[in-house]
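Help! Submission page says 'invalid entity' but I think these are all valid:
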Amino acid sequence: MQQAGSRRTQSGPIYLARWLAFCVSNAMTRSTFHFFPSVDNVSAPYPVNCTLSMFGSAGRENSVVLEGGRLGSPDGVRLEDAFPEMKGEMSGIFGLSVELECSQQRMNMAGSACVVEISSQGITPQAVAARGLETRFWPKLLPPLPGETLRQMSAPLRNGSAENEAPAPMFSTGIALKDPAHNTSIIAVNSGDATVRLLCSTAALQEGTMGPEHEFIGEIPARAVSEFALGDKFFEQGLAQECSWGNLRARSVDLQVEAPALQGETSQISELLAGTVACYLVYRDAGNRRITAVTAL
Amino acid sequence: MSTPSDTGKTGTAALKISHFWLSSAPFFEATLLSACQAGKEVEPGKTVTSSLRFIDADGSLVNEAQVEMTPGGVSVLELDSLLGACKFESGFKHAHLEVYSPEGTVHRCRIHTRQGAALIGELVPMSGTRRIFFPVKFSGGRNNYLALVNLSDEEAVVRCRLFCGGRSPEASWTLAPRASRLIDLSVEFIEYFDEQSQLPVPAHIRLGVKGDYTVGAQMIEKSTGPNDGYVFAGLS
């Protein structure tokens, strides 16, 4: 797949599928982005452009357009090839914003999907190592941009495809684990221009029924990615159970975000945040901290 | 085949269905984790119930169970003992798990071996109008298992196209109604990579069906782990 320049060209797309993900780049870890542009009931290989924007490392940002994609043909790119700065000076966790558009007008990209792959290598001598180990996840699909007329694209989805479903809450419920194999953290990606606060709801008895109370998790600056480790204190309110494979601590995770600096009607702010913030539960190996699974919320 | 909503087990409330593909030891063992939204309003002392149905590889119902959760709570169920009646297919004992649950609940599947653990997500649905894809990597010591589950009451034919470099061979498989199949892509497409090579060959597969039915798919990767054991990973 060819890459065209580092600036996105505005070719006037009508329908746009957008995802907000994160990726990891350091000496031991590399990330690859896979995508599948698809339109239901259309098999013609119309040209597709995929725009990747990376942000979150000391204010550095970059954007590339991957040209040469075709409807119905899955493709992928190593992110260090798309963003050569990842090969050297930059390391850490980055935000990754993805836009997929078809040059053919009036194409509903709702059948498209993408996957982020995080590869870890050589962590332990016995490891899996020569071959490395990959963790793959479906990124969070964002609702359409303001003015987007294709209402069918408005549903955030479990499996990362732009499926037509009823509108869903901003974040779905997740399950945090702490067991002999896993520790859990939350990675929050903020592609917006305002700092946001992340809250976790817990169930509490309120006026005769069970309702949520909110626990502060942390703040995410504008155009940044933050990881919040969930420690023993977080799991005090959760489940403790002995399983055949060891002791498990687990807790339901219901996240909300608020942006104190934003002014306007609540519904407008919610709509804005839904289009600029994504949260993930990240399960890391308790021994070597390698990411073993990621779920989008 | 009757469902929990048919039998009235869960009343008249709208139920969503989550589909998972599972295996039992010695392939890997699975644990179902279920949680209920903290904000879901229920009376104090009441719980939210999910109904589980285990369907084996030939489409037969082999077991049923229920899990209960409180809002904001988590329920854990180890599944190996519930898969004992499943038949072998492709050398493995595996099953399709249907979870019927109210809105506001979520389910995850934790899989583990002695060497490691991971979480896998729900089956990805494909239909006559919707194609799906998975990234894969081929190399020695690594197997890519494609689990297919026919979610319909009629026979389904799944078509798979591998995109590997400039090549794009095809394969197809037939699934009986409600049946499951486990396909080792590393065997199915063995001529397209060097099975002795330690350098992974990246590829993609595209899956689709022709007809008015739905098939679910999950990709499970098995790699050599520490002490000659295996570790598994799936898409989540």
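Support: the input was valid. A stray whitespace character was the problem, and the output above is from the cleaned input. The two ends of chain A are 30 Å apart (CA to CA).
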